[in-house]
């Protein structure tokens, strides 16, 4: 593996870490409705457990209401039960074929808990990025040890890897700040 390949793969892995962090943020509840909130809820479908999005159309009715439209007639009650029994604290209501899931307003205490959770997720993402930096630096040192790269190239490569790491850590901080703002907005 060359220095350029190490840098390229490290940056790609860091991008994947940020994408995973972004996906985790969509699952954290804010005062606003988000169809991604129901991604973790599974429903029994002919003996197998599947995500709601595979048996129904999940969309937004308005800023505080998610609508779930089952594709089969008999699935409405099962979907409603699955949402009610999930740990999201939601109370769905059926209106014919359509299931409405209103988002309850969050208390101040709950908002603070959510911001702590966002910060914790952000810290975990930063740790993942820093671990990737460490692995890349070790790979560069291994190349120097095997005489496939000079010490000057090592210094340049480590500086480049640090710049990429800093860029990703700043992106994570910005995502945490915007999510906190979203949560604290009443």
CATH class of the largest domain: Mainly Alpha
* Share of residues in helices: 55-70%
Number of helices: 4
CATH superfamily of the largest domain: Ribosome-recycling factor
Oligomer: single chain
Q: In the CATH classification, which architecture of the largest domain applies?
A: Orthogonal Bundle
Number of strands: 6
Enumerate the strands of the largest sheet in spatial order, edge to edge or round the barrel: 3-4-6-5
| Low-pLDDT stretches | none
CATH topology of the largest domain: Topoisomerase I, Chain A, domain 4
- The H/E string reads HEEEEHEEHH
The assigned structural class equals alpha+beta
C-alpha geometry:
elongated
Describe this structure in words.
- The protein is α+β, with helices and mostly antiparallel strands.
- The chain folds into two domains: 103 residues, Topoisomerase I, Chain A, domain 4; 68 residues, Gyrase A, domain 2, CATH 3.30.1360.
- Helices cover 58% and strands 16% of the residues.
- It has four helices and six strands.
- Strands 3-4-6-5 form a four-stranded antiparallel sheet. A two-stranded antiparallel sheet has the order 1-2.
- A hairpin with a 2-residue loop joins β3 and β4.
- The protein is elongated.
- The termini are far apart.
- The mean pLDDT is 87.
